[in-house]
């Protein structure tokens, strides 16, 4: 079994601003934006055999080594599937949905505060979305979630915190750079 140990890095990690990828539309960066390149400090991870030294995050709940703009607001389901509104087929997807209003943090650890299933005392990279709200719902949610990468083994762990996580309008999974191999852990499933 996988242990859950949500690591809140909002006071210790680097706050990385969303960049508005299309200043000519009506959507601000916290709704349809991406970060700049985030360097992986603790090694060089492999994703489906491809080596990546940096990732970009989308305000809509996914990471990609590609030159994403972040505007893929419609979750792609089931995986593998070509992205419907953005570049970058290779994706790490802790919670892909039409999200808004989150803050994004990143922090590197030489020894991860969350033990890995793939080894002990491993370095890790934590990518955290804080206060995400599902855009097309009647409520204002405040969901925190994170992707934890262990570069030495390539293991990813997804963790969640909050009461209002709506899996019925989101995708959780991972897929390769060609968009032809992927795993859906959850695909428009409540609960």
* Cα end-to-end separation: 18 Å
Helix content: under 10%
What's the SSE pattern? EEHEEEEEEEEEEEEEE
Task: Assign an overall shape.
Answer: globular
Content-based structural category? mainly beta
Q: How many DSSP E strands?
A: 16
Oligomer: single chain
Our count of helices gives 1
Outline the low-pLDDT stretches: none
Question: Could you give a short account of the major beta sheet?
Answer: 6 strands, antiparallel
Mean pLDDT, nearest integer?
87
Radius of gyration using CA atoms only: 15 Å
Explained architecture:
The protein has 191 residues and is an all-beta fold. Helix content is 2%, strand content 37%. The strands form 5 sheets. Strands 1, 10, 11, 12, 13 and 14 form a 6-stranded antiparallel β-sheet that branches. It has a 3-stranded antiparallel β-sheet with strand order 4-7-8, with no helix packed on it. Strands 9-15-16 form a 3-stranded antiparallel β-sheet, with no helix packed on it.
Comma- or semicolon-separated keywords:
6-stranded antiparallel sheet; single chain; 16 strands; globular; 191 residues; 2% helix
How is the secondary structure organized here?
Elements lengths: L13 E2 L3 E2 L8 H4 E2 L3 E2 L6 E2 L2 E2 L2 E4 L5 E2 L26 E6 L2 E2 L2 E7 L14 E11 L8 E8 L4 E7 L9 E5 L6 E6 L4
């Amino acid at each position: 079994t996988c242990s859950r140990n949500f690591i809140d890095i909002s006071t210790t990690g680097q706050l990385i601003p969303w960049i508005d990828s299309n200043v000519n539309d009506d959507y601000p960066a916290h709704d349809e934006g991406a970060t700049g390149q985030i360097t992986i400090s603790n090694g060089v991870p492999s994703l489906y055999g491809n080596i990546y030294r940096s990732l970009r995050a989308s305000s809509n709940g996914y990471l990609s080594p590609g030159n994403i703009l972040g505007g893929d607001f419609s979750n792609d389901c089931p995986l593998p599937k070509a992205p419907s509104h953005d570049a970058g087929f290779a994706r790490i997807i802790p919670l892909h949905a039409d999200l808004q209003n989150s803050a994004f943090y990143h922090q590197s650890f030489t020894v991860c505060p969350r033990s890995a299933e793939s080894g002990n005392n491993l370095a890790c990279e934590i990518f955290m979305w804080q206060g995400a709200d599902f855009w097309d719902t009647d409520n204002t949610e405040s969901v925190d979630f994170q992707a934890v990468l262990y570069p030495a083994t390539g293991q990813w762990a997804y963790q969640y915190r909050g009461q209002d996580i709506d899996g019925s309008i989101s995708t959780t999974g991972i897929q390769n750079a060609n968009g032809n191999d992927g795993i859906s852990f959850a695909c428009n499933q409540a609960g």
